[in-house]
């Protein structure tokens, strides 16, 4: 009886356990199905159709291939909002990044007096932090607003070279907007003067590299011209401007049209500036030019609202009176006309003159007549102050019969000469004649303005000044290619020699290095140059490489001692690996023992291989250390 009772209880417990198992299984299945359905519905509602859900008991598995990391995170968040996030098992993957096209990287840099702003998307490479450090150095105490975003993609071809050129432009231009993308740099900036604009453009184009498109839009504010000057001369069949000023491009075109009617063959370059005395300036100028042409020639000078017309000697009085009368009637009211008809002089008496000359070497001579001993001493002192005490030679005699304003004219002539690179200024009672060469584009206009200011608008003067590009302090600089060619020309037939088996320069190398230093001293300061050393094949290869490096470094040091700016130069030894002749005979070995000067041309740099700083600045410190280690090279003959 007792056994039967135990059996009944056991069966009851077993049945209850089975029922619980069935109920639990049914509940789990119900939970699994509901979880999958609800999560799938939520994923579809969130447009995450790439994702799917599966369940195993209380665990929910999220599966699928996400197009991006953001989409993957979004799917996990949606699933976690439906079921407990602890139950969600992430089994999703992210699509291969290389399957998607990289974004377009670009950066816009804005610089003004308050600081620098960086805006854009850039590749996340080692060069990024170096670029930010460079920008901070350029800003100095200014504020840097960094709004850059970065992406984990390799830098596209041309990005590093464009960034290097863009940062160079940023250093030069304190007020600028610089847009950079792969292979392209666009610069919009403001310069303080036309001369500064030309200097900026020349420097940027000289630094430009192959493979980078450079677009420049540098503007300069219109200068204030005081006095507002225009001078037009007709001599025989030729007509020219010594100075041309206008207040607008339209006014310049109107004046140019009148000059072309008067016989000028090439359009002039009129300075567009502020300070015009009347809005009718162009009307007055074109009318006066037409009347000077009708008169048959002479000179016409505007100094603000004062106009001086000087006819040719021998012009008929009746014609002169008629033309001057028509001009006086037609001029706007603000303008005042002073007209001169020169009286023929007795040809038997030569006019007194004062002549000051400037040679291409910088020597100045003062000759002719002066009014007194004091006037001679004053002119001598003034010339020495302008050109240097050792450069001035005075040989002028005293003539007390000279006009009262003679001393003023002498000093004006000396000051005028300082606008030339070489030439002369001749002063007579009737005229001041300026002749010579200059490297300043605006020299003629400045000379006309100076003489008008010093001598008055009624003065007659002739300006025969020629602009020469080679004398221009900006454009006259040789290009990098010209510098390389000139140095190669010096080495043609002459050689930089060293002591046998040593990196020490031979005494005979001094004259060659002096000539090379003279050329490099005239080249752009940012000229990037490699001084390469080469040897023949005698001796061990490693020793030859060390010897060639020591010799290249010795040449670099010698140029630095001659005050050549070598910050952008590097010294590199190639040993015997680049022969130019046969090492099997003495003549060939002698040719292979050489120093070469080669330009370093910026090249697009592959992504991730170097930092921007390593691209833009040669690593001199390491080379100096290498040069020190090379002291005491082998005694092998090379």
Short structural summary:
39% of the residues lie in helices and 25% in strands. By secondary structure, the chain is of the alpha/beta class.
Task: Characterize the structure shown.
This protein is an alpha/beta fold and 638 residues long. The chain has five domains: 17-98, 2-Layer Sandwich (Histidine-containing Protein, Chain: A); 106-219, hypothetical protein tt1634, CATH 3.40.1520.20; 229-340, hypothetical protein tt1634; 354-471, hypothetical protein tt1634; 480-629, 2-Layer Sandwich (60s Ribosomal Protein L30, Chain: A), CATH 3.30.1330.60. 39% of the residues lie in helices and 25% in strands. It contains 17 helices and 25 strands. The strands form six sheets. A six-stranded mixed sheet has the order 6-5-4-7-8-9, with helices on one face. Strands 19-18-17-20-21-22 form a six-stranded mixed sheet, covered by helices on one side. Helix 12 packs antiparallel against helix 13. It is elongated and about 160 Å long. The termini are far apart. 32% of the residues are buried.
Tag the structure with descriptive keywords.
single chain; disordered C terminus; hypothetical protein tt1634; 6-stranded mixed sheet; 5 domains; 638 residues; alpha/beta; 25% strand
List the helices and strands and how they pair.
Layout: H1 2-45, E1 52-56, E2 59-66, H2 69-82, E3 88-94, E4 106-112, E5 115-123, H3 126-139, E6 143-151, H4 159-172, E7 176-181, E8 184-190, H5 194-207, E9 213-219, E10 229-235, E11 238-243, E12 245-246, H6 249-261, E13 271-272, H7 281-295, E14 298-303, E15 306-311, H8 317-330, E16 336-340, E17 354-358, E18 364-370, H9 373-387, E19 392-398, H10 406-417, E20 422-427, E21 432-438, H11 443-455, E22 461-467, H12 480-491, H13 509-520, E23 529-534, H14 541-561, E24 569-575, H15 586-592, E25 594-599, H16 612-616, H17 620-629
Parallel strand pairs: 2-3, 5-6, 8-9, 12-13, 15-16, 18-19, 21-22, 23-24
Antiparallel strand pairs: 1-2, 4-5, 4-7, 7-8, 10-11, 10-14, 14-15, 17-18, 17-20, 20-21, 23-25
């Amino acid at each position: 009886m007792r056994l039967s009772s135990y059996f009944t209880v056991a069966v009851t417990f077993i049945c209850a356990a089975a029922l619980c198992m069935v109920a639990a299984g049914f509940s789990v299945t119900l939970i699994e199905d509901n979880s999958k359905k609800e999560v799938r519905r939520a994923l579809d509602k969130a447009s995450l159709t790439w994702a799917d859900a599966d369940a195993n008991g209380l665990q929910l598995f999220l599966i699928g291939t996400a197009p991006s990391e953001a989409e993957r995170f979004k799917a996990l968040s949606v699933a976690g909002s439906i079921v407990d996030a602890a139950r969600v098992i992430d089994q999703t993957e992210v699509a291969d990044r290389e399957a998607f096209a990289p974004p377009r990287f670009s950066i816009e840099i804005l610089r003004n007096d308050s600081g620098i702003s960086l805006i854009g998307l850039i590749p996340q490479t080692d060069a990024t932090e170096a670029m930010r450090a460079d920008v901070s150095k350029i800003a100095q105490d200014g504020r840097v607003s960094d709004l850059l975003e970065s992406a984990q993609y390799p830098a596209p071809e041309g990005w590093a070279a464009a960034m290097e050129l863009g940062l160079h432009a940023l250093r030069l231009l304190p007020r600028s907007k610089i847009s950079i993308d792969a292979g392209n740099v666009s610069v919009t900036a403001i310069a303080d003067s036309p001369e500064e604009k030309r200097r900026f453009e020349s420097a940027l184009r000289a630094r430009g590299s192959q493979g980078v498109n450079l677009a420049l839009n540098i503007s300069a504010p219109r200068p204030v011209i005081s006095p507002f000057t225009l001078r037009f001369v007709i001599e025989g069949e030729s007509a020219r401007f010594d100075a041309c000023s206008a207040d607008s491009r339209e006014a310049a075109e109107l004046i140019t049209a009148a000059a072309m009617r008067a016989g000028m063959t090439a359009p002039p370059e009129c300075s567009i500036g502020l300070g015009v005395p009347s809005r009718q300036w162009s009307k007055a100028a074109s009318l006066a030019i037409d009347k000077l042409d009708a008169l048959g020639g002479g000179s016409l000078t505007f100094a603000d609202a004062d106009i001086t017309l000087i006819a040719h000697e021998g012009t008929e009085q009746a014609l002169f009176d008629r033309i001057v009368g028509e001009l006086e009637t037609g001029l706007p009211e603000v303008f005042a006309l002073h007209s001169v008809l020169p009286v023929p002089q007795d040809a038997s008496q030569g006019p007194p003159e004062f002549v000051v000359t400037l040679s291409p070497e910088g020597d100045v001579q003062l000759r002719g007549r002066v009014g007194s001993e004091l006037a001679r001493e004053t002119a001598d002192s003034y010339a020495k102050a302008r050109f240097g005490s050792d450069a001035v030679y005075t040989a002028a005699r005293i003539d007390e019969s000279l006009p009262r304003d003679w001393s003023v004219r002498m000093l004006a002539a000396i000051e005028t000469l300082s606008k030339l690179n070489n030439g002369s200024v001749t002063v007579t009672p009737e005229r001041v004649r300026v002749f010579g060469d200059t490297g300043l584009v605006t020299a003629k206009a400045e000379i006309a303005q100076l003489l008008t200011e010093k001598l008055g608008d009624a003065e007659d003067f002739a300006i025969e000044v020629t602009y020469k590009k080679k004398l221009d302090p900006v454009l006259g600089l040789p290009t990098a290619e010209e510098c390389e060619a000139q140095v190669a020309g010096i080495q043609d037939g002459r050689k930089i020699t060293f002591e046998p088996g040593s990196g020490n320069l031979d005494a005979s190398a001094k004259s060659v290095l002096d000539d090379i230093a003279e050329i490099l001293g005239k080249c752009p300061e940012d000229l990037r140059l490699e001084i390469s050393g080469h040897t023949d094949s005698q001796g061990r290869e490693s020793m030859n490489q060390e010897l060639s490096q020591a010799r290249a470094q010795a040449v670099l040091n010698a140029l630095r001692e001659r005050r050549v700016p070598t910050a952008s130069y590097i010294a590199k030894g190639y040993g015997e690996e680049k022969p130019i002749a046969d090492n099997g005979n003495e003549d060939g070995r002698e040719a292979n023992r050489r120093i070469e000067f080669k330009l370093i041309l910026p090249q697009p740099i592959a992504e991730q291989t170097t930092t921007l700083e390593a691209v833009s600045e040669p690593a001199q410190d390491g080379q100096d250390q290498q040069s020190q280690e090379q002291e005491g090279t082998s005694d092998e003959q090379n």
